[in-house]
Specification:
With 66 residues, the chain is mainly alpha-helical. The chain has helices spanning 6-11, 15-18, 28-38, 44-63.
Length: 66
């Protein structure tokens, strides 16, 4: 299962992370590893803030019924 909504994917900073099977998303640690590979030298706090933004966008999209 992947997202096919271009509007949702455009709202995310890292759509390639989310546009795959949700079972493969993993844990917060998996996100941290992914983010650190995308943004070398970032802090764990930056990774978590970005994850928070991404989750907010995803939840808003689900709430809107899109």
């Amino acid at each position: 299962m992947t997202f096919t909504d271009d509007k949702l994917l455009a709202a995310l900073y890292y759509p390639e992370y989310w546009n795959r099977n949700p079972a493969s998303w993993g844990s917060i640690s998996d996100w941290d590893i992914y983010y650190i590979n995308q943004v070398p030298g970032c802090s764990k706090g930056q990774a978590h803030r970005t994850l928070g933004f991404e989750l907010k966008v995803l939840l808003q999209h689900l709430r809107d019924g899109s």
